[in-house]
Specification:
The protein is of the alpha+beta class. The protein has a single domain, classed as Peptide methionine sulphoxide reductase MsrA (Peptide Methionine Sulfoxide Reductase, Chain A, 2-Layer Sandwich). Helices cover 27% and strands 25% of the residues. It is built from five helices and eight strands; from the N terminus they run βαβαβαβββαββα. A six-stranded mixed sheet has the order 7-6-1-3-2-8, covered by helices on one side. Strands 4-5 form a two-stranded antiparallel ribbon. Strand 6, helix 4 and strand 7 form a beta-alpha-beta unit.
Length: 163
């Protein structure tokens, strides 16, 4: 099992999107790469500096890190700063946060390929994970609990994998 942390706007949709794919073993939404204290959702909404992030545990034998990044770039605007869909603010920034040095070459190759594809430098953070604090329980699997809930990711993108 390997783990990667992906920030791509509102974490509700990002979690729902990644949960659909074979090889994703578990996901958890939380707050990453802000100050070293656990924030509340209200803190995050008032510019605590944390990014809404999804921790993804995956089986690299079934789903490679490169493929995970290909999927990630399908549902984020990599040129947008602190905004995805209708969500705006520092907590909605895009970022890929890694915990193992051997992940960096794969991540850098994916970033380079995406930058070439879009023809501009990406506005996506590529950084080591500084910290990750689990979000409140009501945020976990939010769109499963609230099927009509808001999501910046188009609904058709939430049904590509296991369905």
């Amino acid at each position: 099992m390997r783990t990667i942390y992906l920030a791509g706007g509102c974490f509700w949709g990002m979690q729902k999107f990644f949960d659909q794919f074979e090889g994703v073993l578990a996901t958890e939404v939380g707050y990453a790469n802000g100050p070293d204290r656990a924030p509340s959702y209200q803190d995050v909404c008032h510019d605590s500096g944390h990014a809404e992030t999804v921790r993804i545990d995956y089986d690299e034998g079934k789903l490679s890190l490169g493929k995970l990044l290909d999927l990630y770039f399908m549902v984020v605007d990599p040129l947008s700063v602190n905004k995805q869909g209708g969500d705006e603010g520092i907590q909605y920034r895009t970022g890929v946060y890694y915990t193992e040095a051997d992940q960096l070459p794969v991540l850098q190759a994916a970033f380079d390929a995406e930058a070439k594809k879009v023809g501009a430098p990406l506005q996506v953070e590529l950084l080591p994970l500084q910290n990750f604090f689990s979000a409140e329980e009501y945020h976990q699997k939010y769109l499963d609990k609230n099927p009509g809930g808001y999501c910046h990711i188009p609904a058709k993108m939430l049904h590509l994998g296991k369905d």
